[in-house]
What does this fold into?
Amino acid sequence: MFKEIESPLPLRVEAVKKSPEAILGRPATRPRVGFRTRAMARRVRGAFVPAALLCLMATTAFAADIAPPKLGRSATPDEIAKADISIPPDGKGLPPGSGSVAQGAQVFAAKCAVCHGANAQGTPNGDRLVGGIGTLASANPVKTVSSYWPYATTLFDYIRRAMPLTNPQSLQNDEDYAVVAYILSIDNIVPKDAVLDAQSLPKVQMPNRNGFINWEPRLIRP
Amino acid sequence: MGKKQDVTELFGEPVAGNGLLHRRFFLQSSAALAGAAASPALAESIGAGSPPTMLKPGAQFNAYGMPSHWRDNIKRILATNVPPAREVTGSIRTPLQYLEGTITPAGLHYVRNHNGTPDIDPSKHELLIHGMVRQPSIFTVDSLMRYPMRTEIHFMECAGNSGGIAGAAMPQQATAGDLHGLLSGSEWTGVKLSTLLDEVGVDPRAAWMLAEGADAAGMSRSVPVWKAMDDAMIALYQNGEPIRPEQGFPMRLLLPGFEGNTNVKWLRRLKLMDGPMYTKDETSRYTELQPDGKAREFMLQMEPKSVILKPSFSVDMQGPGYYEISGVAWSGLGRVRKVDISADGGKTWAEAALTNPVLPKALTRFRLPWMWNGGPAVLMSRTTDEKGRVQPTHAEWLAQYAPRQNFHFNAIQSWAIGANGKVSNVYV
It folds into this structure.
């Protein structure tokens, strides 16, 4: 086994200088069992390292040994701002502007109703968006924006990036605030005279805000 | 009586009810069945005794080869009567019942789109990694091609796969591809995501990562950073060729074993965050309601599952006798440890042979010899994975969720064989 790892060693020692962790083919965040210096790496030849570790090296050698190139270029704040279109529940990144329920009703009639129905009740071409509040624990649960969605920010984010289906990303920010206000007003989640903006939107309390169980802690980790 | 004795000599005694034989049969069978070839008749001109294809040159070369026209029924399955808007937001399924092995040809890989397949110029496409990182960075496709590559075989399964069975009170009579075809297997090649994350320097407090696609749905999903650091890959190739547009050309996020939707196609952005983004497709969709009205969110791993493909609906029996039962098993948690088969509706079980290689989070082909006596039978397959998880029964699965929930359905599939050899989908 010593013979097997002898020949690639010079290469590996070079690699160690660049990326100590790379020798075990693992990211730097894992517990460190790698070699820090050329001198330590040499002890491999002197059988200083337990045999099991040598086996590991022998099997993960070559490709993983060579420090990867660093070919990413720095992203400018402007490039990031243009690409970062996501809105988290705290509303960070919401744009300036505002929209009222009344304005939203017009936007909806003009740009959404053809697929989602006149009162957002749904058609075969677009989901029902309202109703169903209080049905989730029943024998006939109805999942809609009103009854199911935990955050109003998600509605703003999704409509802005993906709707109308045939012309995504075409809405003005004011139109998006307005149409969100309109949809949420149908089941009185916001009042009929509501005006939504970057401050008020994240404060909207969705009826099913606490209806979810985070399953992530139950996933099987490596 | 005499006939039965011959069968027993050749194949041994059944190991479970209704004629299931021991998987060891595969080791002995080649010797047992050899030596049956007839000697060819001699003819004066050898051409006279040969098939026509040997008597004239065949077709010319093709720039890109296509499957045999004799098998042009092997096509992906598109749902019928789809309203116009759903033609870009629906799915097309893998015809599982026609395929063998574990690798799905790229052109038959299932597709689930949320607003069509974009046509992306790779020279203009970039991947931005930002958020809680030391150095926000942009990677071009060409630059990613220069990183060390890895090649891995993994399944891809839509979280909504088999959802029709989950939701339907009566078993739908449809092929395995119709029912379970939001499932495919591929060899993926690309750059380990942890390599790029190490380069940009992830803040230790970052726990989630948003992945966003450059399609007209702006598909976006949050995934835990531990997954991104573990076995996630920026996939650039599928089955040896550049990943196809329908699968995310020029690049997709590959999260082995996670629900298909999180394997974001046309990947353009990764944002490191302290909490999830709560996008539409991790709140409105891909969450599952329990009977108590609470919904499970971030149920990201695909649990163990299997389906018998031969026989299956429309792949009927052709008279009593010897058959090989064959199908695929998989688990998003790791390797398939074993697949048990029943031919008597779950009363008795026999362990199937697994075809090597048995890889983690990959389709695994299983096979079992079966002497069908021509009588009614109910075939079932049940996977146990290396974490010890076992496929639930239909009733056990349904009991976990509210009515008509249809994500993450992984219950045992049952196929009934009628005395006429017709196979139908049944609930047991």
Notes: The longest strand of chain B covers residues 183-192.
